Amino acid sequence: xxxxxxxxxxxxxxxxxxxxxxxxxxxxxxxxxxxxxxxxxxxxxxxxxxxxxxxxxxxxxxxxxxxxxxxxxxxxxxxxxxxxxxxxxxxxxxxxxxxxxxxxxxxxxxxxxxxxxxxxxxxxxxxxxxxxxxxxxxxxxxxxxxxxxxxxxxxxxxxxxxxxxxxxxxxxxxxxxxxxxxxxxxxxxxxxxxxxxxxxxxxxxxxxxxxxxxxxxxxxxxxxxxxxxxxxxxxxxxxxxxxxxxxxxxxxxxxxxxxxxxxxxxxxxxxxxxxxxxxxxxxxxxxxxxxxxxxxxxxxxxxxxxxxxxxxxxxxxxxxxxxxxxxxxxxxxxxxxxxxxxxxxxxxxxxxxxxxxxxxxxxxxxxxx
Length: 369
Ligand SMILES: [Zn+2]
Prior knowledge:
369 residues, alpha/beta, binds zinc ion
């Protein structure tokens, strides 16, 4: 993280100031908020988030959108001519409400709703200051007022998208699953989230049957919503891709054939290899003893790190597979989101520009932004 890339992140501060999150400046529309004074940024180097680099760029931002990209200006708000500027980063998978409570534990025992709400605000601020201007929360109902507070400008944070709920009950009938999707939409979900496999701490085997996955993905499409499918087992990944889900998260047990299938079906693939497991291990005493965070679960987590790394190296060899950037940030990980990006480059061997494109324009596309 403490690399040249980190310096580039620092130089995003001006973009953060306006929450500008257009990953392709040329494609961005001028904001309606033209009454505000435009912000003009001089960039020594501009990385546009789509794979191109421009020297001595001048970026004009009106409202929350980049309205112009040129090479000269009369007036400069922020002079970053010694720095590199890139679009605000996007994380497609965080749990913005998760935090360590008063007792230092991830279980948050004895907290009031007000204390929990403040932790959501703290996580939002930490991620914004780390260069993330949009995050998608695999969510809970308290994300809804947090999203509204950020959107209205009352609270500093990245633009927030949320699933509001997560489907984990494997006993639901296909019709009950469709009802779950409709309730999520009615209660304000931007995205639907279902668990189609166990946690990696329990081996990751498929949990929802193929027809349950198909019911969820079909109803999400019918409602015009995206759907994120948690799946470690290859069988669950295949069912999700064949059902037309938007994205598969994790995919730790996939093979070349599954990567080919996702590529052919246009399924976004969100591996999480560089932050979530490492954060659990670094904070082991804060998780140990809660639910499936037992010694056996930690063994699965530790053993999974090299397996997920080799899976990622395989996945990025599939040039037609859309590998997006999500961290699965839980308690302790918010604000460290860029570790996933640097790990992919430094340890996973992904070209740096591919990683930057993933965390900016490809993620924007996957979120429908
Ligand atoms: Zn997650």
